[in-house]
């Protein structure tokens, strides 16, 4: 995927490695609606050889987030809650269609459905997102998480 198509695919203007790994392609991003195309790779399948539920939940989450952002693309969103229902196995090329149902100044209420190539509904979710200010490209630096034992109040390291 080229750099410009990747920017369009993520719809956020920032790289999301997990979304890139899954291979999502944003095909609609306007007017409170989004659509994302996805075909699971072999490593995204479960033991029944169908798309893993975690991959489907990510697809639903990202399609709802992009639907929410489609009306205010300069803002970011974070997931507050999500409810998912799995209706039938998801096999082959899939499409998630997200919809912004209602928004306030700070919150977005959304839904999304995943369809298979025959147009059958495979999974559905509703979600609530909080709008957050997007950091400039490059953002602020992120410090690595300190994994060493923390000192107690007396300054002695504890386990």
Keywords:
159 residues; 6-stranded antiparallel beta sheet; Thiol Ester Dehydrase, Chain A; globular; alpha+beta; disordered N terminus
How do you describe this structure in short?
The chain has 159 residues and is of the alpha+beta class. It has three helices and six strands, in the order ααββαββββ.
Commentary on this structure:
By secondary structure, the chain is of the alpha+beta class. 19% of the residues lie in helices and 37% in strands. It has one domain: Thiol Ester Dehydrase, Chain A, CATH 3.10.129.10. It has helices spanning 3-10, 17-22, 53-69; strands at 25-30, 33-39, 75-86, 93-103, 107-116, 121-133. Strand 1 and strand 2 form a beta hairpin. The chain is globular, with a radius of gyration of 18 Å. The termini are far apart. Mean pLDDT is 84; it is low at 1-10.
List the helices and strands and how they pair.
Blueprint: H1 3-10, H2 17-22, E1 25-30, E2 33-39, H3 53-69, E3 75-86, E4 93-103, E5 107-116, E6 121-133
Antiparallel strand pairs: 1-2, 2-4, 3-6, 4-5, 5-6
């Amino acid at each position: 995927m080229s750099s410009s198509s990747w920017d369009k695919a993520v719809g956020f203007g920032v790289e999301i490695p997990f979304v890139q790994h899954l291979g999502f392609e944003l095909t609609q991003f306007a007017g409170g609606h989004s659509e994302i195309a996805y075909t699971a790779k072999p490593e995204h399948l479960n033991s029944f050889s169908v798309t893993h539920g975690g991959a489907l939940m990510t697809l639903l989450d990202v399609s709802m987030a992009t639907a929410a952002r489609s009306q205010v693309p300069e803002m970011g969103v974070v997931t507050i809650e999500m409810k998912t229902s799995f209706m039938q196995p998801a096999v082959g090329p899939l499409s998630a269609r997200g919809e912004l149902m209602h928004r306030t100044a700070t919150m977005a209420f959304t839904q999304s459905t995943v369809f298979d190539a025959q147009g059958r509904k495979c999974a559905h979710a509703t979600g609530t997102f909080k709008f957050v200010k997007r950091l400039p490209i490059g953002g602020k630096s992120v410090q690595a998480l300190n994994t060493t034992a923390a000192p107690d109040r007396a300054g002695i390291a504890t386990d």
